Amino acid sequence: MKLPGARAFLAVCIVIPALATAALLAAGAAEDALKPGLVRVHFDASDFRRPKNVTIEPQINFDTGTKHHDYSRILLGHIRIPTSQPITFSAEVDDGFTLTIGGRRVIDGWQTSQREGNLTAREGETLPVEVKFYQCGGTAFLRLFWAWNDHPRELVPASAFFHSAADRRKADAMVTGKHAPETPGFGPGKRVEPLYEPGGPNSGRLPEGSAPITLKPGPATVPG
Q1: Would residue 56 count as lying in a domain?
Q2: pLDDT at 106
Q3: How many domains does the chain have?
Q4: 50 in a domain, yes or no?
Q5: Weakly modelled stretches of the chain, pLDDT under 70
Q6: Is 53 inside any structural domain?
Q7: Whole-model pTM?
Q8: 3-class DSSP state of 24
Q9: Which of 10, 27, 110, 199 is most buried by its number of CB atoms within 10 A?
């Protein structure tokens, strides 16, 4: 005996899961889609404390002059490699910065004078990029350049930089305090902090081996 609608029921059982799977794949593709620019996190301290805001930078080219003092920035995203030839990255910076591409530290200019580094990758490859910058008084600027054989030195163009939704979430986590960025040379989550800063981890404590200082009132008048 044939059951009416059996084929229709079977078709529904096949089509609906297929449509749901397609919708999930489309949502995943949208989530992973890269958008122009790098995600930038600004900190009102030179060691990635006091996070202030998140914004999008079209490229690595900023100059705040002497308007802001003692601050740091992290830029997250991806960079598209234009050639399979060795690329020389170089920077003009004050005070210091690091450039990491594809998990490799290309330039380590945090506590050194290094301002140049080389990278070789496949043409058209898109790699994660992270830039960390700090300023401790005076003028502040950062400009990133690249060059390769038969291609003169130029600012890395905005068309080379992208960011993902995951990059944005990581930046937001820094601002909300859910993710502590690493200060180069000090390990994950460790920052340069005054040991006995008010409100800090050692606030109210005395250095080991020291004793309290007792202040006594002085004379009512200063001898002439």
Answers
A1: yes
A2: 97
A3: 1
A4: yes
A5: 1-31, 185-224
A6: yes
A7: 0.70
A8: helix
A9: 110
Q: Residue 224: what pLDDT? A: 45
Q: Where do the DSSP E strands lie in 51-198? A: 51-57, 61-65, 71-80, 87-94, 96-101, 104-109, 116-119, 126-135, 140-148, 151-155, 161-163
- DSSP states along 33-90: --EESEEEEEESSTTS-SEEEEEEESSSEEEEETSS-SEEEEEEEEEE---SS-EEEE
Distance CA(170)–CA(104), nearest Å, equals 19
Residue 140 within a domain: yes
Q: What is the pLDDT of residue 137?
A: 85
CB-based contacts of 115, cutoff 8 Å, min separation 6: 90, 91, 92, 93, 107, 109
- CATH number, domain at 149? 3.90.182.10
Range of the domain at 105: 35-176
| Helix H or strand E segment including 22 | helix 6-32
